[in-house]
Known about the structure:
The chain is α/β, with parallel strands linked by helices. It has helices spanning 54-63, 77-85, 115-118, 124-138, 155-165, 189-196, 227-237, 258-276, 291-294, 301-324, 332-345, 349-372, 378-384, 396-399, and strands spanning 31-32, 41-46, 67-71, 93-97, 142-146, 150-151, 167-169, 172-173, 176-181, 206-213, 241-249, 389-391. It has one domain (3-397). The strands form 2 sheets. The chain has a 9-stranded mixed β-sheet, sandwiched between helices. Strands 1-7-8 form a 3-stranded antiparallel β-sheet. α10 (301-324) packs antiparallel against α11.
Amino acid sequence: MSLTDLDLPTMPTGEIPHIHSHRHLVQLPAVRGEAVPALDAVIVPATRPGASLAHAAGVAVRAGCPLVVLCSKGITAAEAVAMVRRLRRAPRVVAADVRGSDAVPGVRFRTDAHPPATQGRGDASQKRNVGLLLARMLGWRSVLFLDDDVVGMDDTRLSRTRELLAQETPGGQVQAVGWSFEAFADNSVVCHAHRSSGGLQETFIGGGGLAVRVHAGTPFFPNVYNEDWLFLHDLVARGQVLLAGGLCQLPYDPFDHADRASHQEFGDLFAESVFALMHHPTPRPVAADAVESLLAPAHDPDWWAGRIRFRREFVGSIAARGAARGWTDASPVVRSLAGARRTLDGITPTALVAYTAAWREDLRTWGDVLAGLPLTDLRRALDLLRLEGVGDVQSRRVRFSGRGVAGSRAPSRQ
Length: 414
């Protein structure tokens, strides 16, 4: 596919049908609520061979909490623990090798049955869900997710994370505090291309630096690109998420694999579209029981047909500006755009409606799972998830945050 094959439609007004920033959705007035909470764990979904865990370990030391490393691909649990223990100041550390596709043994998500969404996906969603399950069973009430390519969580940012998690907004108690990534932007390949072509593009909160409260109402991470946006969706709609500032993601070349954009396209289209509904003049925050009404258009094939059309116009507009800047058909960015467009051409409104329904059903399934988990010790929690732990697995200091009591009862729904 070449630049001329992409079509270059524009909206009648000439504007690009794309919202360049969602930040105002998480920049809300807030006041101090409860006492500043402790962070009960730093959780790292690790994949990179030779990845440094020094930054996350240092954050755990300063927070006075365990480091949990969930490993796959290029790093093993044994390697992760050895790496952390070689540090001059090492936190308590537990690591596990995460294999397979089920975060909850015996529970399958309906969203996993949608190949356009899961094609080419890694296992970050699964690991984050495993982290939430462990936290729930150990009685942990707040955890910090940090990716293994993220740096910059210094003492000031760590304190700010905890302080914002204690605040209340017009939507109620803050449930998540996130960081954007700007030194090297954390965007999709298509949005990187948009910026490279001269388009205005900001970043949003990412799962690579995200503190969350853990309870039976905590959402899950679907196995799709922009899984962190879908995790946050309902909380953002209810006005319970705050942006803390910026962290740094280690740079990479977003255009080095043409299939990266192709694999991202379904999730990018879906997440951008459902977040666009929050830019409608409907008053925010919305009540918890009004989120489904907010999402009503996402159950309408005609609405999705319009969103697909807007996306085509967006991709075409990027290609047009790129051509004017001298991009050729052989350039990596053009090949990436072509890959995104091929995937986009195969996405139907019916598939997006079905994915919407699956996502909402999976949220209910996940809530039932969290509500039914036992409060137990680390060894038993790992066994229930069919994981083999390495490190301080037997340490009583890793078992609970000091607020739980061992036993077989389920945690409260709060």
